TrEMBL record:
UniProt-recorded name of the protein: Uncharacterized protein
Stretches assigned to the C-type lectin domain: 78-202
Residue stretches making up the Ig-like domain: 234-343, 355-439, 469-548, 555-641, 647-738, 743-836
GO term, biological process aspect, one: axon guidance
InterPro entries in alphabetical order: C-type_lectin-like, C-type_lectin-like/link_sf, CTDL_fold, FN3_dom, FN3_sf, Ig-like_dom, Ig-like_dom_sf, Ig-like_fold
UniProtKB keywords: Disulfide bond, Immunoglobulin domain, Repeat
CC annotations in GO: axon; plasma membrane
Residue intervals of the Fibronectin type-III domain: 840-947, 952-1052, 1057-1157
Origin: domain of life: Eukaryota
Length: 1197
């Protein structure tokens, strides 16, 4: 009879449909439902589950002691731990940790000298390949050495444990056991995590039963059979991100979202009774104390809380600045997101003091420093030249380079580079933060003058500047996009190449700025190494410099916490494994509150929590592991369900009919749901078999409760009943065993669910006449025979009580039908089961698009396999025929927003803001609670009809030209923005007036792609302000014009001459020059006065002219240095603007001073003179005819 009979609290509850209670003597008394309504049916499913799983509480006080289990088959026992030495397949450290986790254990941790000696001796005896290394979980050095497997620190002397000199100091590498010739034993060493090696798993004997325990999920102990419908605690699907507010914005927001059943509550008391005092949704830490403030409209009407979205109107500093986190809860517990920050960005003002000038030799390299003001959090830099916003274009000027450090570099300079340069600093935010601003604020520096001197052109370089190579961000983090820059001084052309010492440059890398910039997207720890920039000029001259790229990482979880469904009073270990550089530290929370050690109850040790005897009232709930280093915090959460309920066979009864073969073996499986684990008894035809675990015989009761029969006889035929009993009750299930002469499968594989990257086990056991024939098991997957010796994914178990197939590190491609064939020389028998792999969704299918309304596309797609969890969101990416890089158009579109009544079996969405004239391809990816799935196949390209341009050119700036012209340039529209054929530009200009209406616009139509124009304005219209605007057009019409920019017309040569030039002596090698204030008007300067040039020549050589430039627009004096003492010079002065020099002034004569003293005092003697003085004596000096008279002496310490 299927399901058999069930007794006890839970059994009667299922049978009678009522709620039972237990009397003083343990009798079950039926509680009659009122008004004919079953209390169970009147309750919510989750409430019914809670009732079923807490029914044990009425049964009285439990007297339970910790149970020590035998180690599983294939594991080695030492003291109170079990060890599994895994020779094959070898694994990386991360994969080894995963395998041990799947076995309910952890990677080896060494806690005592005796344990080390045991491992060393075992390997010395058993490991014949002396070159192999065995993984452990040890990391760190000295006092920081710890074992990640059990979270403990080192507790014994390690000086004799190391097999290689200095291995103990390599703190960032994990410890391995390796054979050491000097001691003829296995000792400790180190190796990188990416190496593949055998490994050792470990488990405490109190938890060793979990190695062979059937996998449990959220359906275990509930009325549900579909895990997707089973009640569970919250898990975040959207995490908030930090926000930087700049200037005045109307509003900003933080958003989180969690998945759970029942759905999570985002307000404090909406669905939770008052006595259930969990944390409310969203909090902000106070800046001035350690207390926490609940955010709601009651605190401030500017706050609005809608589900997981916290909206903030009119954000203010410092009131709203601080740390925020989101909490989500349901009746199973509460979890918190990592804290995020709301901050207010700022950028200070440049100094009002004029910056100094930069002098450069002509045809040599130089650099101009921006010296930016203070800013927070980040900034980008741009440069322009001259009085107009003539933004520099490095794509047009290959000798220029604007670094992310804010500096402007010149590989070589020319006279045309002289002028005033301005640095523009714009506020930005780091990756991973959101910018709440209408327009990022920016500041512009005063002009920094570049003076170019000399006139000798020689080939030189290349010479890589001392600032390079440089990496940005300066502390590279895993997952970021890195920019590695290189700039050399030297005569153009210069050719840049990159290499890497420890292997090739990653394939994902790409280059900018003529290979001066190396871009590494989504950088990973393995991308670290020495990168070399090599710069070559011509064929023989080159220079190379290297940078050591060290990749650090914010904490990331190699494996998230696992939900656990455990028996009451058992010992439970919860482990989290996080990577990070530097290594992270760990903290734990339970239901949103800090979790710390409680002696005798809970032990918190680093990344491991051990609960000695779990109790549902104290220990059930949501647990979070926080991993933190200087780069941030990551959180992983999981639910711990402490179960206690009577056995039930409702989901897995004994098979109605079973067969066994005469002379063979048979296993009858008894696997009820029960907690704690029940005691099993068996009867045959209602007669008790009175079996004892561990006793030998032909009929054996196995440790897991199954019945194992060897040398099957006809007398074994009959009705077998398995009775399971624990402290909550008893249940039975019966099946009929028939004995036949043919081979039969007594334990067929069952349909199984497994999480992606997990391991699955399909049991298959046959009964056959062992005296007459041999039997082999052959497995096939989707009708293809499995060769477990060649494919490490599969492993066949040969244990008599656990025959079957393991699928290790299961992937989606392993989902399908598995067939077990028991084969003898005379016959064969098969049984099959289906393996379902749960995880992120598969790629959506059939992405189609249709252009609507000229500028939009309606996308239609079908979802793929959801892989065991509802699809929550979709991402849509796009690329165009002009830009083949995939870019996100929309992220985390809610499934509800993609439903359509017109296509009920598909999903749709309207993609807007596309550029006319471009062809687009789209792809879609789906998201469920396991993560983001792979993208779909790209759609066919969809052509958006041509139209007039929709964007205007930007960055209109001055371009230097000859007098009588107005020359300007602009940022040309990209191909994607030209939106059609027959492209060109219309440029407009007019002289600026004080009249608001201005004058008439002059216009020129330029056909084809261009980024500059020179307009004739006449010789008399030099250095005047003109209003300029530019618009693009194509064959379908005109696009919008740019905003109006002010551009100066070209300058003419100055006509002003400095007057009343006079000189003054300063010392023997320098003199001063003075002149009257000059007329700086437009008419006199024919432009803007840039400075003065002082010309001077030595009287004996009037043909040798020297000059000294003064870069100022209001000075009336300067100093000339470096002249010859006791000589005569003639001087005159000229003004200059950006075009050139004005006329020379009158010549002035000066006779320089004689030399300073040529001798120095000798025989200096110092003696004490008083408590705060000394007496100094020396021998004086004599003055010659070519020296100025002696004035005195100067003493200095």
């Amino acid at each position: 009879m299927r399901g058999g009979r069930e007794r006890g609290t839970m059994g009667r509850l299922f049978e009678e449909g009522g709620v039972g209670r237990v009397g003083a003597r343990g009798r079950q008394q039926k509680c009659r439902p009122r008004d004919g309504v079953s209390p169970l049916n009147a309750m919510s499913p989750t409430a019914a589950v809670s009732l079923l799983m807490t029914s044990w509480l009425a049964l009285g006080v439990r007297e339970v002691t910790a149970q020590i289990h035998d180690c599983p088959l294939g594991w080695v026992t030492f003291n109170d731990h079990c060890y599994h030495f895994v020779f094959y397949p070898t694994q990386t450290l991360e994969a080894a940790v995963a395998v041990c986790e799947q076995d309910a254990g952890y990677l080896l941790s060494i806690n005592t000298e005796a344990e080390h000696l045991f491992i060393s001796e075992w390997l010395t005896k058993q490991e014949l390949d002396r070159s192999r290394r065995w993984w452990t979980s040890g990391i760190g050095a000295g006092t920081t050495l710890r074992w990640e497997g059990d979270g403990t620190a080192l507790t014994f002397d390690t000086s004799s444990k190391w097999g290689e000199a200095d291995a103990d100091k390599k703190a960032n590498l994990h410890i391995v056991y390796t054979f050491t010739i000097a001691t003829n034993t296995f000792l400790w060493n180190r190796q990188p995590d990416s190496e593949k090696s055998p490994f050792i798993c470990e488990v405490n004997r109190q938890e060793s039963f979990r190695v062979t325990q059937a996998q449990r999920d959220f359906t275990y102990g509930t009325l549900y059979s579909d895990v997707a419908l089973a009640p569970r605690g919250p898990r975040f699907t959207i995490l908030p991100e930090s926000v930087v507010v700049a200037d005045r914005v109307d509003s900003t927001y933080l958003e989180c979202e969690a998945d759970s059943l029942p759905p999570p509550s985002y307000t404090c008391w909406s669905t939770v009774p008052p006595e259930y005092n969990h944390s409310p949704l969203c909090y902000r830490y106070k800046r001035t104390s350690t207390s926490i403030i609940r955010i709601s409209s009651d605190v401030d009407p500017r706050y609005t809380l809608t589900n997981g979205r916290l909206s903030l109107q009119d954000p203010q500093t410092p009131a709203d600045a601080g740390l925020y986190y989101c909490a989500a809860e349901n009746e199973f517990g509460s979890i918190n997101t990592p804290a995020v920050r709301v901050s207010f960005g700022y950028i200070g003002d440049f100094s009002n003091d004029p910056p100094g000038s930069v002098r450069a030799k002509r045809y040599q390299g130089t650099v101009i420093n921006c010296n930016p003001p203070r800013y927070n959090p980040d900034a980008s830099f741009q440069w322009f030249k001259g009085p107009g916003a003539n933004f520099l274009r490095t794509d047009l000027n290959k000798y220029l380079f604007m670094s992310f450090n804010g500096k402007l570099y010149f590989s070589e300079t020319s006279l045309a580079d002289a002028g005033m340069y301005h640095c523009v600093v714009t506020l930005t935010v780091p990756p991973g933060q959101r910018f709440a601003t209408v327009q990022p604020p920016s500041k512009t520096s005063l002009g920094i003058e570049l003076i170019v001197e000399g006139d000798v052109a020689t080939d030189f370089g290349p010479e890589i500047h001392n600032d390079f190579p440089a990496v940005f961000p300066t502390v590279p983090l895993r997952g970021q996009q890195l920019r590695v820059e290189c700039l050399a001084y030297g005569s153009l052309p210069l050719y840049y190449t990159w290499s890497r010492d420890n292997g090739p440059v990653p394939d994902k890398a790409w280059y900018l700025e003529d290979n001066r910039v190396l871009i590494l997207p989504d950088v990973q720890l393995e991308d670290a190494g020495n990168y070399t920039c090599n710069v070559q000029r011509k064929s023989s001259t080159s220079h190379a410099k290297s940078i050591s790229l060290v990749i650090e990482a914010a904490p990331f979880f190699m494996f998230p916490l696992r939900d656990q469904h455990v028996d009451i009073d058992s010992q439970v270990s919860i482990r989290c494994h996080a990577g990070g550089v530097p290594a992270p530290t760990y903290a734990w929370q339970k239901n949103g509150q800090p979790l710390t050690s409680t002696p005798g109850d809970v032990e918190v040790s680093g990344n491991v929590v051990v609960i000695k005897r779990v109790d549902p009232a104290r220990h059930s709930g949501m647990y979070e592991c926080s991993a933190t280093n200087l780069h941030g915090t990551s959180v992983s959460s999981a639910q711990l369900r402490v179960l206690s309920f009577a056995p039930t066979f409702s989901k897995r009864p004994l098979a109605d009919t079973m067969t066994a073969t005469i002379g063979g073996n048979a296993t009858i499986i008894c696997q009820p749901d029960a907690s704690p684990s029940p005691e099993m008894t068996w009867s045959l035809n209602d007669a008790p078999l009175n079996l004892v675990k561990g006793a030998e015989g032909r009929v054996v009761l196995l440790d897991n409760g199954n019945l194992f029969i060897t040398q099957v006889q006809m007398s074994d035929q009959g009705r077998y009943t398995c009775t399971a009993e624990n402290l909550n009750g008893r249940a039975s299930s019966t099946g009929l065993l028939s004995v036949v002469s043919r081979t039969t499968i007594t334990v067929p594989p069952r349909d199984t669910h497994v999480d992606v990257n997990g391991s699955a086990f399909l049991q298959c056991q046959a009964s056959f006449d062992r005296k007459q024939r041999d039997l082999v098991y052959v497995w096939s997957f989707n009708d293809v025979t499995i060769d477990a010796d060649k494919d490490p994914t599969f492993k066949q178990s040969t244990s008599d009580d656990q025959l079957g197939l393991y699928i290790i590190n299961t992937q989606f491609e392993h989902a399908g039908e598995y067939r077990c064939t028991a084969l003898t020389v005379d016959d064969s028998v098969t049984a099959s089961a289906y393996l379902t792999v749960q995880g992120p969704p598969s790629e959506p299918a059939g992405v189609l698009g249709q252009v609507v309304n000229g500028m939009s596309v309606v996308l239609i797609w079908s979802v793929g396999d959801s892989h065991g969890a509802d699809i929550l969101f979709f991402n849509i990416e796009y690329k165009s025929n002009f830009n083949p890089v995939w870019r996100y158009k929309y992220t985390q579109l809610r499934t509800a927003d993609t439903l359509s009544a017109e296509h009920p079996d598909k999903h749709t969405y309207v993609v807007t803001d596309l550029s006319p004239g471009s062809s687009y391809s789209f792809r879609v990816s789906a998201i469920n609670r396991y993560g983001v799935g792979p993208p779909s196949q790209p759609s066919a390209y969809l052509k958006i009809p041509d139209a007039a341009p929709t964007k205007a050119p930007e960055e209109i700036s001055i371009m230097y030209s000859t007098v009588g012209t107005l020359a300007f340039t602009w940022q040309e529209l990209s191909e994607e923005d030209l939106t059609g054929d027959g492209v060109g530009y219309k440029v407009f200009w007019r002289k600026k007036t004080n009249n608001d209406n201005g004058g008439l616009w002059q216009r020129e139509v330029l056909y084809g792609r261009t980024d500059r124009h020179v307009a004739l304005v006449g010789q008399d219209n030099f250095y005047l302000e003109y209003e300029v605007k530019v618009g693009a057009f194509n064959s379908l019409g005109d696009g919008p014009n740019s905003t109006i920019f002010i551009i100066m017309s070209a300058e003419d040569l100055p006509i002003e001459t400095p007057r009343n030039v006079r000189t003054g002596e300063y010392n023997a090698t320098a003199f001063q020059v003075f002149w009257n204030k000059v007329d700086t008007s437009r008419q006199a300067m024919r432009g803007k006065l840039v400075g003065f040039q002082v010309n001077y020549w030595w009287e004996p050589e009037p043909g040798t002219l020297y000059s000294s430039n003064v870069w100022c627009d209001d000075c009336e004096e300067t100093m000339v240095i470096g002249v010859i003492p006791n000589e005569n010079y003639w001087i005159n002065v000229q003004v200059f603007n950006t075009v050139g020099l004005g006329p020379k002034g009158e010549d002035t004569f000066i006779s320089l001073l004689l030399n300073p003293p040529l001798l120095y005092p000798e025989y200096v003697m110092v003696s004490s003179h008083g408590p705060d003085s000394v007496f100094v004596q020396w021998r004086g000096v004599s003055i010659g005819l070519l020296e100025e008279p002696l004035i005195g002496y100067k003493a200095s310490d």
